[in-house]
Amino acid sequence: MKRIMRWLANLGVVLALAAGLAVWIALPWFGVLAVAAVLAAWLLLSRRGQQTLAVASVGVSSLPQRWGASSVIVVGIAGVVGVLVAMLAMGEGFKATLNRTGNETTAIILRGGSQAETNSVITRDQVPLIGQLDGIARSRDGRPLVSPELSQVVSLVTRADGTDANAQLRGVGAMAWELRPQVRIVEGRRFEPGRRELVVGRGAREQYVGLEVGRTLELANQPWTVVGVFESGDSHESELWADAEVLGPTYQRTAFQSVTVKLDGKRGLARLKAAMAADPRLKLDVETTRHYYNKQSAGLTRLIQILGTVVGAIMAVGAVFGALNTMYAAVAARAREIATLRAIGFRGLPVVVAVMLETMLLALLGGLIGALLAWLVFNGYTASTLSGNFSQVVFQFQVGPELVWTGLKWALGIGLVGGLFPALRAARLPVTEALRAA
Predict the structure, then answer these.
(1) Residue 426 contacts by C-beta under 8 Å, 6 or more apart in sequence?
(2) Can the keyword Nucleotide-binding be found in this entry's annotation (predicted)?
């Protein structure tokens, strides 16, 4: 019967721990501050809290004597946090790059039902019809701000390892520069309409071989000259741009894939949708470019987050076992000390909380080290990955305060799990048995 009761008690502890961890992971920063404030008030103002501080101070003061064993917790948790933050920083950097690409003042038009440019077709006779629709802004000379575009994947040699990789060659219309004012030529000049000339994003130039100004590329068995380099601070920096009217015939394209337009005011999108729905010749969809690029980043960002969480969880299990072994050994080494404290009137709660505070202090130190290493090594690190168009997008890892905060919550969660069961053992240790064993 006692075994069943003990088993049920342990099961209750595990279930409560699992629920507590779920709440802890979901807790916002102000919730954590509230928990910390309540704990600090209890430690300072209550009798048992002061007893807890006394027991914890003894344990913390003895850390230098057992630093070798304690470093297992610190190093293990630092590794978990470092890997987790680095993985999530990759997803955040990719998401931020694509999110910066679009805005609410421009819209992209695709064939009805298309999810990306790669599976969209807009015929040439539809482009003039689109330009006459209500909701599209016009330039000073009265021309609609419309850029019919096509996307072509080309194979280029990477600088990193000399292998072939996909790059996105975008054919744009004459209005593309006005539609994307963030695109700035930083070296050379723009391509001239009607000529086989390219301008390349700075990220693409750093990623691939042979994209310096003045170099000639052979694309579709035709020579193309690189005449300029541009910056945009978004995913367009991973692209090569050319005149769509020249690029289309080169690759035997008789249609476009998308049309980017400038919206006329806040109601521009609604007016454009209404006008498009009223014309039976236009079976097309339209959405803001911000919404479009947010959708393009969502799938890969979610995959990276899932992978990062799974890898972090697997490493966290190892760190928890390391913490358990270390704290069990610490409790065993301090058996006489804990028994003496309980013999002179210290209750089980102060002992439990003191052991857990000691473990979570080590966990916090490991979390800070892991987050710092992730920030030093990966923040601003340039990488590339495949986009929705199956071409490489150059982006930078972003280690921000939110990711550091996530890593620290994971560290403290590991410390909570790793310290709870040794703490319970210390509180349940019979006084006479502990004194006799010591």
Answers:
(1) 331, 334, 338, 351, 352, 355
(2) no
β-pair type (146-157, 164-172): antiparallel
Q: Copy the structure tokens of residue 120.
A: 């969209």
As a whole number of angstroms, the distance between CA 120 and CA 127 comes to 14
Q: How far apart are the first and last CA of the chain?
A: 30
Regarding whether 306 and 268 lie in a shared domain, the answer is no
Alpha carbon distance 45, 49 (integer Å): 7
Chain segment 363-379, per-residue pLDDT in tens: 889 899 999 999 998 88
pLDDT in tens, 74-100: 888 888 888 888 888 888 888 887 777
Under a CB-based contact definition with an 8 Å cutoff, are residues 409 and 29 in contact? no
Q: Which domain holds residue 348?
A: 27-99+297-437
In sequence order, the β-bridge partners of residue 146 are: 261
The β-bridge partners of 396 are: 382
Residues 55 and 188 grouped into a single domain = no
**In angstroms, rounded to a whole number, what is the distance separating the alpha carbons of residues 344 and 347?**
9
251, 114 Cβ separation under 8 angstroms: no
Instruction: Annotate 174-209 with b (16+ C-beta within 10 A) or e (fewer).
Output: ebbbebbeebeeebbebbeeeebbbbbbbbbbebbe
Which residues pair with residue 110 across a beta bridge? 285
Whether residue 272 is found in the same domain as residue 130? yes
| Residue (of 83, 80, 23) closest to 316 by Cα position | 80
CA distance 75 to 278: 64
DSSP H or E stretch at residue 185: strand 184-188
Which helix (H) or strand (E) element contains residue 219?
Answer: strand 216-219
Q: Which residues pair with 136 in a beta bridge?
A: 263
Residue 173 vs residue 330, higher pLDDT:
173
Which three-class secondary structure state does DSSP give residue 116?
Answer: coil
Same domain, yes or no: 333 and 266: no
Is the Cβ–Cβ distance between 393 and 238 less than 8 Å? yes
Residues 272, 278, 281, 283, CA torsion sign? positive
User: For the chain, what is the domain count?
Assistant: 2
Phi and psi, residue 389, nearest 5°: -95, 10
Query: Contact 254/72 with Cβ under 8 angstroms?
Result: no
Average pLDDT score over residue span 293-301: 77
Instruction: Give the Cα separation of 324 and 417 in Å (integer).
Output: 8
Structure-token pair, residue 392: 């490489």
Read off the DSSP letter of residue 201: E
Residue for token pair 């914890």: 56
Quote the pTM value.
0.74
> By the 8 A CB rule, do 108 and 258 touch?
yes
